[in-house]
Amino acid sequence: MTGIWIARLQSLKRKPLLLIFMTLMTVVMAYVLGSSSNGTTNIYVALDESGKSQEVWKELNEVEGYTFHKMTKNELLLKVNEDMDTIGVLINEDTYSVFAGTESDTVRSLSLAIESKFNELAFKDQVIQASGESTWVEIEKSLEENEAFQVKVDAMDASQIFRYDNALQGLFGFMLFFVFYTISINVQFILEDKQSGIWNRLKLASVSRFQLYFGHLSFSYVIGFVQILLVISMFRYILGVNMYGGFWKVVVISAFYVLLVMAISIFVISLVKTVSQSSVIISLLAVAFAMIGGAYWPLEIVESEVMLVLKWISPVFYAMEALKRVTIYEETLSSVWTYLSMMVGLAVIMLAVGITLLEKRTERYHSSE
């Protein structure tokens, strides 16, 4: 087994670009798609020096669904002219202007929110002018104590509430997608050794089948797992992505996923004759599993019943669900044991079937000779 590891390390040293490329692609894609504003819309705002505009600005920052960025009037006009997709707002003492390339629901909702804030402040000013500030304080206190509606709140299972974190969706999705390639390509060395005759020569040199398989598979497992560790460590400790205290739970779940992908790769190479055939099938499976497993988008927004049924055949689905549960939903590892046990069960079955088929093919090849 040591000899296999040395040979694989030497091969990796000669051709490290693939591993580096897969790791970099994971980081780049996850960073680009995950660095957006987590579902909020960026709004650029310029204010005059009046107290009213400052009050409106303070109130606007409490409106959900938008991320407001303060700048000067000249900076705002320049940005709006350079980028037609930019939405800008110029707030004066008694009026406001919205700059946008197109009329949209976002622009209309924003205008309504600003108009509402202006009306609230105007009502406050009228009350203070008519009856004094103490009257307004009493009105505010009365509104807080005597609500217009009595709302009954019932507890709801947290697992039934859809929570979304754009940064983690991008990180987990592309991490699982690209590591599928890394592991599968490394497992293909078993097929290459069998085709080139190296496998048989090692067996003649008193290397057992267990040592041969364990050497190759353990190396593939470690390479895939190290890639995942590098990616999640970079995002957690360098880029500062919030994992909701679940970093080590993410590591544990990733270990199960790597095992399942390795088993699927063994099963795939047991069904084909050449490495090129294996590469084609693995590429198709990687993309398909990512699409139906929720790597590119959360499955909560998918309406197709067919896709929701097909998700159960995707290893990405089990990993994505478990990863999101222990981070975004802040659940424990025991709460995602169903997904972990499914990954282990499928891995054991596919490893057993894949190795059996590979050995039968080898026996048939020798008998034909």
UniProtKB/TrEMBL annotation:
It comes from the Bacteria. InterPro entries: ABC-2_transporter_component, ABC2_TM, ABC2_TM_bact-type. The chain crosses the membrane at residues 16-34, 171-191, 212-235, 247-272, 279-299, 336-358. Residues 133-361 form the ABC transmembrane type-2 domain. One of its GO terms (molecular function) is ABC-type transporter activity. The keyword Cell membrane applies. GO terms for cellular component: plasma membrane. It is found in: Cell membrane. Pfam families: ABC2_membrane_3. Its main location: membrane. It is a multi-pass membrane protein. Keywords: Cell membrane, Membrane, Transmembrane, Transmembrane helix, Transport. Belongs to the ABC-2 integral membrane protein family. This is ABC-2 type transport system permease protein.
